[in-house]
């Protein structure tokens, strides 16, 4: 498995994975909007996306990170916002490889670290993240939505 930085040449494969990821999070499938969303993130350098590629060039997983800044640390941070591996490829260490690539990004950009969140009922993620060095913190996480 090779982890590569996504570019527009991989967009169609990324869209399929991204759409499946969103559906897993109970969102409606919308490949057209996903295509536009991802194209803009990549084209404008607004996120870093890494793909897990098989030897035959098939994208089977991805992670997407967004830049943040920490005022208290006075440094960049990365938000690991998305992590997904196609069902047929789970349990093969691909998520760990994608997380390792995210950590490499943090190191290469001299970032303070990588933050992530997941649902409390995401049993796989809640087992994976501590095994890859992430610590559950004691901060409260609040969210205000501008919908409806």
Report the sheet-strand fraction: 15-25%
Overall average residue pLDDT: 94
> Between the first and last Cα atoms, what is the distance in angstroms?
43 Å
Helix/strand order? EHHEEEHEH
The profile of the biggest β sheet is: 5 strands, mixed
Low-confidence stretches: none
User: Any idea how many domains?
Assistant: 1
CATH classification class: Alpha Beta
Structural class: alpha+beta
Number of strands: 5
Based on CA atoms alone, the radius of gyration comes out at: 15 Å
Taken from the alpha-carbon principal axes, the silhouette is globular
Strand order across the biggest sheet?
A: 1-2-3-4-5
Helical percent range?
25-40%
Q: What is the fold-level CATH name, i.e. the topology?
A: Aminopeptidase
- Per CATH, the architecture is 3-Layer(aba) Sandwich
* Count of DSSP-assigned helices: 4
């Amino acid at each position: 498995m090779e982890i590569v930085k996504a570019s527009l040449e991989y967009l169609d494969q990324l869209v399929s994975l991204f759409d499946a990821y969103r559906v897993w999070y109970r969102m409606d499938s919308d490949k057209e909007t996903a295509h536009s969303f991802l194209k803009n993130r990549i084209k404008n350098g607004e996120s870093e996306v890494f793909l897990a590629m098989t030897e035959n060039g098939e994208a089977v997983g991805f992670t997407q990170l967004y830049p943040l800044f920490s005022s208290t640390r006075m440094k960049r941070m990365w938000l690991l916002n998305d992590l997904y591996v196609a069902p047929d490829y789970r349990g093969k260490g691909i998520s760990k490889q994608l997380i390792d690539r995210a950590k490499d990004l943090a190191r290469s950009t001299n970032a303070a670290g990588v933050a992530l969140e997941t649902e409390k009922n995401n049993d796989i993620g809640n087992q994976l993240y501590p095994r890859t060095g992430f610590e559950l913190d004691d901060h409260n996480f609040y969210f205000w939505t501008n919908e409806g």
